[in-house]
Amino acid sequence: MLGFTNDQIYRYSRHIILPDVGGSGQKKLLKARVLLVGAGGLGSPTAMYLAAAGVGTLGIVEFDTVDLSNLQRQLLHHTRDVGRLKIDSAADTINALNPDVTVVKHQVVLDSTNIMEIIKDYDIIVNGTDNFPTRYLVNDACVFAKKPLVDGSIFMFEGQATVFDAAHDGPCYRCLFPTPPPPGEVPSCQEAGVLGVLPGIIGSIQAIEVMKLILGKGDSLKGRLLLFDALAMEFREMQVQKDPNCPVCGEHPTIHELIDYEQFCGVPFPENPAQAALKHQERELVPA
């Protein structure tokens, strides 16, 4: 098959025989450039499935090191990696899984001075971060850069996933939550815990959404928030409307530049946005 090596034809054969993927779709995957913000619980399954699928370039933003407590859910890393930089262990795992994939390491703390330069070279951004300042920063940068953002979050036994794409008439994160919650309002996963397999489910959904965007197939989660309750083994879907009064993507935006919320507010925010969304969903969202 033109453009593929024999090994690639065999490796991606289950994609190539799919009518909605085929050889042309696999070529799109191999040419795609996806940025993962975080190589932790959500970033692990997303990165591994995108790498296995043959997404050609995976950028990873991560500055943390592997801790023993991470290994209950962060499958990119292994016991031997404890103490290593996550970005290095993640790259090793991805390269071992699929040598077709180029891993671009961004060992930085994202802030208003570097995020636009980093995301400009990628087609799709995937949010796997676990703190509010970064979540709002990534959202706003994607709106300004007109990039689709595949978003996920987890907390205890619950998780959620959606696609924010303000450039194509979709909502952004601020359409749901215009401003970050007060410091201390939402407990972190470190304080409340998280079921180890939960990010595997949500991260896999994020990987599917990325692949659908690359292939141009199916109905994305744009405008829909998928909520998962592991204890009830129940999925629910909420409609998310684009807010014409959104401060960043609305008709008359009031936010025109990136905000470093940790500096702006003076206090770091709690780690998990999922709990805030789940806590306020009945007030903020309209059932589909």
Write the layout of secondary structure elements.
Blueprint (H helix, E strand, L loop, with lengths): L5 H6 L1 H4 L5 H10 L1 E5 L5 H11 L3 E5 L24 H12 L4 E5 L8 H5 L4 E4 L4 H14 L3 E7 L2 E7 L8 H4 L12 H4 L5 H18 L8 E6 L4 E6 L21 H5 L7 H12 L1 E2 L1
Explain briefly what this protein structure is.
The protein is of the alpha/beta class and 288 residues long.
Amount of beta strand: 15-25%
CATH class annotation: Alpha Beta
CATH superfamily: NAD(P)-binding Rossmann-like Domain
Question: CATH fold name, please?
Answer: Rossmann fold
Show unreliable segments. 264-288
Q: Helical stretch count?
A: 12
- Counting DSSP E segments of at least 2 residues, the number of strands comes to 9
Helix content range: 25-40%
Query: Element order, helices and strands?
Result: HHHEHEHEHEHEEHHHEEHHE
Radius of gyration: 18 Å
Quick check: average pLDDT? 89
Strand arrangement, major sheet: 3-2-1-4-5-6-7-8-9
* Largest beta-sheet characterization: 9 strands, mixed
CATH architecture: 3-Layer(aba) Sandwich
Shape: globular
Indicate how many domains the architecture comprises.
1
N-C termini distance:
43 Å
Structural class determined from secondary elements: alpha/beta
Overview of the structural elements:
This protein has a 9-stranded mixed β-sheet, with helices on both faces. Helix 4 (43-53) runs parallel beside helix 5 (86-97). 44% of the residues are buried. The chain has one domain: NAD(P)-binding Rossmann-like Domain (Rossmann fold). It has helices at residues 6-11, 13-16, 22-31, 43-53, 86-97, 115-119, 132-145, 173-176, 189-192, 198-215, 261-265, 273-284, and strands at residues 33-37, 57-61, 102-106, 124-127, 149-155, 158-164, 224-229, 234-239, 286-287. It is α/β, with parallel strands linked by helices and 288 residues long.
